[in-house]
Write a structure and sequence with these properties.
Elements lengths: L35 H11 L8 H11 L10 E2 L19 E2 L4 H13 L18
Parallel strand pairs: 1-2
Protein name: Hexosyltransferase
Organism: Oryzias melastigma
Keywords: Glycosyltransferase, Golgi apparatus, Membrane, Signal-anchor, Transferase, Transmembrane, Transmembrane helix
Length: 133
């Protein structure tokens, strides 16, 4: 990616001289869940992997060295709720994480979670879709 001299490079600009190729699979977004064992293994292997300026990609590089692979879970929303679900009263109760929220939005979401706690107490988390053989 090249930028004109009067342009500021994008947030995730990486010069071609720094990294070539395709990034490994990685978990992007606002949160992840690791087992304690994987966290320890990542800690140890991270000392042997060249530091990379994008943290999610760096962890992906470490996981590749461990032959570990991220697994998507639908209760982790990297972007936002689908527009068809945004106004549903219990939508916020179906997720563990929603990324890209500002402080005011987080406070509103917290208030909504508390306001609908009783009404939505039996709403399940979003579950992975199982493939039938």
């Amino acid at each position: 990616m090249r930028c004109r001299s009067d342009q500021r490079p994008p947030k995730y600009f990486i010069p071609d001289s720094f990294y070539k190729g395709i990034y490994p699979s990685y978990a992007g977004g606002g949160g992840v869940v690791y087992s304690g064992q994987l966290a320890r293994r990542l800690h140890h292997i991270s000392k042997t992997v060249h530091l990379y300026p994008i943290d999610d990609v760096f962890v992906g590089m470490c996981m590749r060295r461990l032959n570990a692979h991220p697994v998507h879970h639908p209760a982790f929303l990297t972007f936002d709720f689908p527009s068809t679900e945004k106004e549903e009263p219990c939508t916020d109760h179906t997720v563990l994480l929603v990324h890209k929220r500002g402080p005011e939005q987080l406070l509103e979401m917290w208030a909504e979670l508390n306001r609908t706690r009783t009404q939505c107490r039996d709403v399940p988390l979003r579950a992975p879709v199982t493939k039938k053989p």
